[in-house]
Amino acid sequence: MPITSKYSDDQVENILAEVAAVLEKHGATPELSLMIAGNIATNVLNQNVAASQRKAIAEKFAQALISSIEDNTTH
């Protein structure tokens, strides 16, 4: 069963396009782009999530990332 988001596809795609444009503007390599994405995730967790919930949410995030990669192996 697919996960339903409270955010529209357009909203997500627009933000993603803007972030990608910034990374491209700065010539970010894939490694730097991933490092920045990881730092953003860490900052969001540390600034917006209770300490008691951070590890569980980080683990769910990591699993979602792994699942999204596995889902795209046929593309």
Automatic annotation (TrEMBL):
InterPro entries: UPF0352 (IPR009857), YejL_sf (IPR023202). Belongs to the UPF0352 family. This is UPF0352 protein MD483_15490.
